[in-house]
From TrEMBL:
PROSITE patterns: GNAT. The keyword Lipid metabolism does not apply. This is GNAT family N-acetyltransferase. One of its GO terms (molecular function) is N-acetyltransferase activity. Coiled coil: none annotated. It holds the Pfam family Acetyltransf_1. Keywords: Transferase. InterPro entries: Acyl_CoA_acyltransferase, GNAT_dom, NAT_camello-type. PANTHER family: GNAT FAMILY N-ACETYLTRANSFERASE (PTHR13947), LD18367P (PTHR13947:SF37). It comes from the Bacteria.
Amino acid sequence: MDDIHIRRGYLPGAIGRVAELHAAYYTENWSFGVYFEARIATELAAFMSRYDDSRDGFWTATVHGRVEGSLTIDGQHGQQQGAWLRWFISSEKLRGRGVGDALLSEAIRFCAQCDFPSIYLWTFEGLHAAHNLYQRHGFILTEERIGSHWGVKLNEQRYELLL
């Protein structure tokens, strides 16, 4: 991982690049479309506009200065509802190199330091590598429901880690 750098905080261009990474992966592999990309870009931009370094986390993994992965912790309601893990993605270039594990470890450490009671995330059935990663870090599947949060009908899944 010598050429990969993980950092916390805003990086110019990261909002667009994180939206691009999501759109490219999920369109190619799950037939998501413009609705999904627009939702990611809009929600991530809104999050970054209210970002508070004391309760929120935004990590990027870069290779030669280009964002190739990210993970976000939305702590706005962290004390009451748990921290919300969002926008977790790695490019093809980084998959299988331990970057997802490193990003998730950083996020869990941050949430523990913030004294959040838990961390939760929403995903969907079929993302086996991601689910295995969550489970290795102690997340458990707590809810499943058919929904169209991502613009297509899927079996949505909620994972949670009690801290």
